[in-house]
Specification:
The complex is a heterotrimer of chains A (394), B (381) and C (294). Chain A has 394 residues and is of the alpha/beta class. Chain A has two domains: 198 residues, Response regulator (Rossmann fold), CATH 3.40.50; 130 residues, Rossmann fold. Chain A has eleven helices and 15 strands. In chain A, the strands form three sheets. In chain A, strands 7-6-8-9-10-14-15 form a seven-stranded mixed beta sheet, with helices on both faces. In chain A, strands 2-1-3-4-5 form a five-stranded parallel beta sheet, sandwiched between helices. Chain A has a three-stranded antiparallel beta sheet with strand order 11-12-13, with helices on one face. In chain A, a hairpin with a 2-residue loop joins strand 14 and strand 15. In chain A, helix 2 packs across helix 10 and helix 10 crosses helix 11. Chain A is globular, with a radius of gyration of 23 Å. Chain B folds into two domains: 326 residues, ABC transporter involved in vitamin B12 uptake, BtuC; 38 residues. Chain B has 15 helices and four strands. A four-stranded antiparallel beta sheet of chain B has the order 2-1-3-4, with helices on one face. Chain C has one domain. Chain C contains eleven helices and four strands; from the N terminus they run ααααβββααααβααα. Classes of the chains: A alpha/beta (394), B mainly alpha (381), C mainly alpha (294). Chains A and B meet through helix 1, helix 3, helix 4 and helix 6 of A and helix 2, helix 12, helix 13 and helix 14 of B.
């Protein structure tokens, strides 16, 4: 009896395996259709976390990119169209490589991704060997572009942000007693913090108190905040995402501790956080390339279109993705390649475009964005102050 | 009384051993066959281009997870203890392997040799970790043991977040705890705290990974069929009886645990060599649980069942990509349903009945078997 | 003074762990299974309460009550659909199913409520933080209430289990399932009741936790779930006062190790303490020693 069952189980499992294999292999057909439009279709793939704890970033990228794709396709009915496909990686390097491979199977020509740093580093190495052009909206670790000539970043690098922040604070708040709380289980956060510390110390200053936490956004921060308070810190540097930051601000205010906060680009979104008492963030400074409250025309149009489509204010990740799609699209048009070109051809052509002074305007830069041949973006940083529940550019 | 008990056990044991020998051969045959056929099919598929990049990219992780399932089966299935920290040993092996590979890069240029040394060192370090955490096993049982292994996994991950390794200009290995190493370029860093290892040269291939899986299988099957293995299983089935015939319970449990840890370390080392970067967060509680799911879904103690489950559950989330947003939800539902269908006695029986009805070939065979059983039963009466 | 502040934070955090741990411990006691989906029930409780409060405009306390009802029903449903079919097939099979249920709840929440985090409105919005000793000592109202709620829940549960008929039935089932059945106790009902109570408490824990640490995401329940499970084992799994003591000690160790040793390694210290306790007392602080019968 038991034996029969085992055999059944094996056969059932084998059937599932065949099904799984078929599903894996069969995906490739979907790419060749919908070539009806005159100038053909450029296949852009995206990879990012759509499930799991980092899902909010991946979802924002997905939405922002979809919006750009829709705009481009509607504006150029006779021009080059874009087919956009975004795959989930659960914020995991292994799954990210799988997602990338799946996209290559499906005929992707350019990758806009991946969203988070560690997975992007893994995918970048695969894409380097496989010759895919990669423009990441938000993977900001230095390791993402190191040694990969095909990978470019649209966001500031972590060390870059740490340096800018240190310089800004040292210059504008010379008397501040500075402390820092960072996420030591996150490479974005520790990357910024390390650079910040090094730069701030070369300015001849010291950080009065440093505390860390690991990943769990909903932790109790009272110990960290007490340590800040006891060290007399009145200026807290928070190179972390806005979710734990909002939690820190709430707990600090509960214990009657009200320092000045300074955040990086992960801070953006804090004012749009549903249920967050924005008065807690009053007076906070943040270094971000994008703000949903900026009053230029492009940003306003983007924000209202985004709100209409998804019912919420866009965070910086969405704007980054939006810019990425436009950058890739414009650069592709400038190469003069047809959409039938292979992934490898497009990769080489885009690399020479990006290295050859290609520039593009976007939501996340005040002027034009250019790229270094190392893959780093060259754009002016913006510092915002939160005043009356709005971002005010400094 | 005691004498009778002993006699009972030993005669029963003898009969069991004879039967077990047969079972062992069968189990080994099936396991190696799965491995060989799997390798052949996938390799041919890859060469002819039937198998896409997506699946090809999963060859090494599949092998790694299969190895992990085999090694965890040694603890959960054969030794009968619940372990929730297998990813911890995997982490130890992975990071050890990465460091060894980087350090040896300047001395040994032949990749396979370097990889073998890295695997051995990874196994050694992981087995030390296994030994240290294995000591509490001496006094703990059941779910309390499970929680200690869970705690161990979390501690390992927490420590990995503050470890820094780098190779300086002279080729010396530098180490720092809880602060970054000064005066080092980014390329010289091997492991940087939470960022983990970056710039790893990918050396793992499907063939190496498959050889590792075969090695793991060989070790576990042989251990299972050895004197020690039988002692471990006897203790699992009845600890008191085992003690009464003079088996050193603690020793045998520790053997199973340490061997399992060493094999997990090797699998982790192979995993680490398959990606250009590796962050400690990979080895969290979820990964430990995933490996346990393989073992339980494949049938606790059933080595080849665990192997198939590991391969399937690695591919399944990828195959579910067509469900887009509902991918992980589908995965969760499938997991629950499969568990209920394979373990609930009533549903199990019903499925078997349906299966028999739709499979005439099998039906005849089974009926033949039943007749035989009936006959033998009558003879015995 | 910072010692006292830290102590209160620790007690408050520990109380949250304790209330969650009660759910773990009761379910373990009666069905010998580790219900890893328990942490995600907390998340569901938090979301239900949030939605009622923000979108329906319901009073926070009323929302809490409805969240409790929803979670109770959810707990009974989970037990009925996912765990009962596997009763008696060994604890491992149920453990894996529980993990499946946990994935299911997390991903359903992601689909229903989206990935964006929400900031939970505190139950004690109007209440003021107490400041003493010139601002050196500050106590948040959420802390006081959480600690008090923990004690009240503990007392009520202990009385319920030892005095009422249903409670005694639960104890009988956890002691000896078969004998309880022979005595005419409805085992299914007792187990359902346990899940109902545990899940209702999970909703309370969810709301209290989110009042103190206000981020609400689909994965909010995962880490507190693991910590509370640790707390339950710490105190001796299956024991109600054990869960409370375990939770409180765990919370205090966590906060103190962050305050005085290292914020980077606080989790390692918490789990390290757990291992040490289990080495000294293999069945937890208040766990019963199981005598093996031949």
């Amino acid at each position: 009896m038991k034996n029969t069952f085992k055999k059944f189980a094996v056969i059932a499992m084998a059937c599932m395996m065949v099904f799984a294999l078929a599903a894996c292999g069969g995906g490739g057909d979907s790419s060749s259709d919908s070539e009806g439009a005159g100038a053909g279709t450029l296949h852009i793939g995206g990879v990012g976390p759509l499930t799991g704890p980092a899902a909010l970033y991946g979802t924002a990228v997905k939405n922002g990119a979809e919006l750009a794709v829709k705009e481009i396709n509607e504006a150029n009915p006779d021009g080059v169209q874009i087919a956009w496909d975004m795959q989930d990686d659960e914020h995991d390097a292994e799954k990210s490589v799988n997602a990338y491979n799946k996209l290559v199977d499906d005929g992707m020509q350019v990758l806009v991704g991946t969203v988070t740093s560690a997975p992007c580093t893994a995918v970048a190495a695969e894409a380097y060997a496989n010759r895919t052009f990669v423009l990441t909206p938000s993977a900001s670790a230095a390791a993402v572009v190191e040694g990969n000539d095909n990978v470019y970043q649209l966001c500031f690098q972590d060390p870059q942000q740490g340096q800018i922040a240190a310089d800004y604070i040292a210059e504008n708040y010379p008397d501040a007693v500075v402390g820092a709380i960072y996420n030591n289980a996150d490479n974005y956060s520790s990357g910024i913090y390390d650079a910040f510390k090094a730069e701030y110390e070369t300015k001849g200053k010291t950080i009065a108190a440093t505390e860390a936490f690991s990943d769990d956004a909903n932790a109790d921060f009272s110990a960290q905040l007490n340590s800040m308070k006891n060290a007399g810190v009145d200026f807290v540097f928070l190179p972390i995402y806005y979710t734990p930051a909002s939690n820190i601000m709430k707990q600090a205010s509960d214990m009657g501790y009200t320092p000045k906060y300074f955040g990086c680009d992960g801070f953006d979104g804090i004012l749009a956080l549903e249920g967050f008492d924005t008065s807690l963030a009053e007076g906070a400074l943040l270094l971000t390339p994008f703000s949903a409250d900026a009053d230029d025309e492009a940003t306003q149009a983007f924000v209202s279109a985004y709100q209409e489509a998804y019912g919420e204010k866009p965070i910086q990740f969405a704007a980054d993705a939006y810019d990425c799609v436009y950058a890739v699209y414009n650069a592709f048009l400038e190469t003069g390649l047809s959409t039938d070109a292979s992934m490898e051809e497009i990769c080489e052509a885009l690399i020479s475009q990006f290295n050859g002074g290609f520039s593009v305007k976007g939501l996340t830069a005040s002027g034009e964005m250019k790229w270094e041949s190392t893959g780093e973006v060259d754009k002016a940083p913006k510092i915002y102050l939160i005043q009356d529940g709005k971002y005010v550019e400094q | 009384m005691a004498e009778r008990l002993l006699k009972n056990i030993s005669t029963r044991g003898l009969k069991k051993t004879a039967k077990k020998g047969m079972q062992y051969r069968k189990e080994a045959m099936i396991s190696y066959a799965i491995l060989f056929i799997g390798y052949a099919v996938l390799q041919i598929g890859a060469m002819t281009g039937i198998v896409g990049r997506n699946l090809q990219g999963q060859f090494v992780p599949i092998c790694v997870y299969v190895s992990l399932a085999i090694s965890l089966n040694l603890v959960v299935g054969i030794s009968g203890e619940l372990s929730l920290g297998h990813a911890g040993f995997m982490a130890v092996g992975a990071f050890t392997g990465i460091i060894v590979m980087r350090v040896l890069e300047q001395y040994i240029t032949i990749v396979p040799v370097r990889l073998i040394i890295a695997l051995l060192v990874a196994a050694f370090v992981a087995s030390i970790a296994g030994f240290i955490i294995g000591i509490p096993i001496l006094s703990l049982r059941g779910d309390y043991l499970a929680i200690v292994t869970l705690a161990f996994g979390e501690i390992v991950r927490n420590f990995m977040n503050v470890l820094h390794f780098a190779l300086d200009d002279k080729g010396h290995l530098k180490f720092a705890f809880n602060h970054t190493i000064e005066g080092i370029t980014n390329e010289q860093r091997i492991i940087t705290g939470a960022i983990g290892a970056t710039g790893v040269t990918k050396t793992a291939t499907f063939t190496y990974a498959m050889l590792l899986t075969a090695f793991t299988l060989f070790i576990v099957l042989n251990l299972k069929n050895s004197k020690q293995g039988r002692a471990i299983m006897a203790i699992r089935d009845n600890r008191i009886a085992g003690e009464s015939i003079g088996l050193d319970v603690k020793k045998y449990k520790l053997i199973a645990f340490v061997v399992s840890a060493a094999l997990a370390g090797m699998a982790g080392c192979m995993f680490g060599q398959n990606y250009s970067t590796l962050a400690p967060v990979k080895f969290n509680f979820n990964t430990s649980v995933l490996i346990l799911v393989f073992v339980v879904l494949g049938g606790i103690g059933n080595i080849w069942g665990g192997m198939i489950a590991a391969a399937l559950l690695t591919i399944l989330p990828e195959a579910f990509r067509q469900f887009a947003d509902y991918r992980m939800l589908t995965y969760a539902i499938v997991l629950i349903l499969v568990m209920i269908c394979t373990y609930n006695p009533a549903i199990k029986a019903r499925i078997q009945n349906i299966w028999k009805k739709i499979n005439p070939l099998k039906r005849k065979k089974d009926e033949g078997k039943k007749d035989k059983k009936k006959k033998s039963g009558k003879e015995a009466e | 003074m910072s010692f006292l502040t830290n102590l209160i934070s620790g007690l408050s955090l520990g109380s949250v762990y304790a209330i969650i741990a009660l759910g773990y411990t009761m379910v373990y006691g009666i069905s010998k299974m580790l219900n890893f989906a328990h942490g995600d029930v907390i998340m569901v409780g938090g979301y239900v309460s949030f939605i009622l409060n923000m979108y329906v405009g319901m009073n926070g306390w009323l929302a809490l009550l409805i969240a409790m009802v929803v979670c109770t029903v959810l707990g009974i449903l989970i037990e009925r659909l996912a765990y009962r079919p596997l009763r008696g097939t060994g604890s491992l099979a149920v453990l894996i199913t529980a993990i499946g249920v946990s994935y299911f709840l997390q991903n359903s929440a992601l689909l229903i409520w989206g990935a964006n985090p929400r900031v939970f409105p505190s139950l004690f919005e109007g209440a003021k933080t107490i400041h003493a000793y010139n601002g050196q000592l500050s106590i948040a109202p959420a802390s006081i209430f959480t600690i008090a709620a923990n004690i009240v829940i503990m007392v009520i549960l202990t009385l319920f289990v030892s005095k009422t008929k249903a409670g005694k039935a639960m104890r009988a089932v956890s002691e000896d399932n078969g004998a309880a059945q022979l005595m005419g106790i409805n085992v299914n009902q007792s187990i359902s009741l346990t899940f109902a109570i545990g899940s209702g408490l999970a909703a309370v824990a969810g709301v209290l936790m989110c009042s103190a640490y206000p981020i609400l995401m689909p994965t909010t329940g995962a880490m507190p779930g693991i910590k509370a499970f640790t707390a339950a084992v710490f105190g001796g799994i299956g024991s109600i006062p054990g869960a409370m003591i375990g939770g409180l000690i765990l919370g205090i160790i966590e906060i103190f190790s962050r305050a005085y040793i290292s914020t980077e390694l606080s989790d390692a210290i918490v789990f390290g303490c757990l291992i040490v306790v289990l080495l000294v007392k293999p069945t937890g602080l208040l766990g019963k020693k199981v005598h093996e019968k031949v």
